[in-house]
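Review form for a predicted model. The reviewer records the input and the model, then writes brief findings.
Reviewer: anonymous (R2)
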Amino acid sequence: MNRYADQDKLAELKTKANRLPLTPGVYIMKDKNGVIIYIGKAKALKNRVTQYFGSGNQHTEKVKRMVSNVEDFEYILCDSEFEALILENSLIKQNQPKYNILLKDDKGYSYIKITDEKWKKLTTAKSTDGKGSFIGPYTSHYVVRETVDEARKIFKLPDCTRNFDKPSKPCLNYHIGLCDAPCRGKMSLNEYLESLSSAVEFIKHGDRDGDTEERIKAEMEKAAERLDFETAAKLRDRIAAIKKINEKQKVVRATYKDEDVIASALIGETACTEILVFRNYRLTDKRKYIIDGVSDRENLYGEFLQRYYADRTDIPGRILIDTESDCSAVEEWLSNISGRKVAVINPKIGEQKALLDMCFNNAAENMSEIINRTGRETSVLDELSRLLGLSTAPRYIEAYDISNTAGSENVAGMIVYKDGRPLKQAYKRFKIKSFSGQDDFRSMAEVLDRRFTEYEKGEDEWFSVMPDLILLDGGQGQMSAVIPVLEKHGVSVPLFGMVKDSKHRTRAIAAQGGDISIKSNRAAFTFITGIQDEVHRFAIGYHKNRRSKAMINSELVKIPGIGSARAAALLKHFKTISKIKSADMKELESAPGMTKSSAEAVYKYFN
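Model under review:
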């Protein structure tokens, strides 16, 4: 069954799309019940809408599902892309179409809680349920968590749940100066509650222009004057903690007063989009969104920026994104609704690029939790996709290598990496069948032809998976031999070669436009080298195994009365040639397929 609507309907929709004008506008996709399922805008309506009803191989699974449900579409002409963007936003708000990106902020409100108990604790809460007093609400749990953490460090408050009425051995926080450890029994309840009260005051009013630091400094000097050196030392430590936290905040401060930094980790058709919100030069919030059905960053941000800023009043003057994209219409729209000029920028160097990198690392770490991988594994796939010019990071990679000795025992190995790690149960071995002799190009072509013939059959679990990226051990020659095979099977998977230097070390990636140097991209270089070494190991291991068996078989068939079938039976029974050599007459004669005369021949040959 075709994944799309029936072919007649598809042809009808394509014909209608081909009649659209090459002008800006909004298109509205509807299902058989007349329900709007997708709304989009375009600079040129004809070019954009016809793409939906063309080659399905170029679409994400989400778009395929959407197109399969399209019964008809309408369109509205606009005078400019900016006007189309405004109309698109308005229609999406009204209709909430199923296949548009509809961002839902499910974080709710967060609170800072002071527990209701003898030794009160400072903690975070998602609601005001239960006993205790609350500060808030805050729209960002990140802000609440960071604020509580700062206050605890400055005023050396505990983050544990111990009963302080029963003295106990202090934990590590005491020994590294982060907690006064009331658990030791050497701190009075009044002293503790005074510290907690100061922390609450700090949370409510903050360190405005250094007011808190100056106030504590004055208290410290008074304590020193009355020779209360223990109190003075505690106040001195609080000042040091405030300075340390302020220094920490400077590390993640923006160059500009207000800006949003947006980066996405893309794996397959899923994106984790992270937003770092800087206000008054300080990181004030972090937000993340998981989005499915993503084809590439440019298309992602084309829709994401509109959905994210549609109902926000706090729009900064600068927005950093991690892709080069024409955002002129979005910039005009944001400037219009915010009442000031807004720039969408893709920085390449300097502090702004460092902020963007930090944001991407956070996105990669969050994505790694989704696919059960480390942040490093997720980021290297993203780096590889950028290096090779892929629209998204490849989740499923296949690599191939040929191995033979002067054309004999010609074999190939196929290995698979899924989400950055070897998937050994999907590895495959091939014995070259279509010719004899040494020809790596023909061998590679045969292997890929057989691989995608198996894909079309759909009988093997692992051959039934379409890879996101194919890597060949070799250069332009191997690629030229394989490209016609992929075209024959209608496969549009990105294809690259892995080129080695004279010392058999990875040197570059072979692409159709020429070699791509990868040595400057350390993570990608190490990753590709690992794949190349693994596929070589797998292929040559299979070749050595076959050559060893062939050599043993040729040794046995030299014995009179021992043909290839009897030789194979002997090897299967005794497992190794050394065991055949050491076997006595009785053992040889009792082996499958052996007679008394053939057993004597084998025994005499080796003895």
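Findings: The chain has five domains: 7-95, 110-251, 259-372, 396-540, 557-606.
Further findings: Residues 7-95 form a domain with the GIY-YIG endonuclease fold (CATH 3.40.1440.10).
Recommendation: see findings above.
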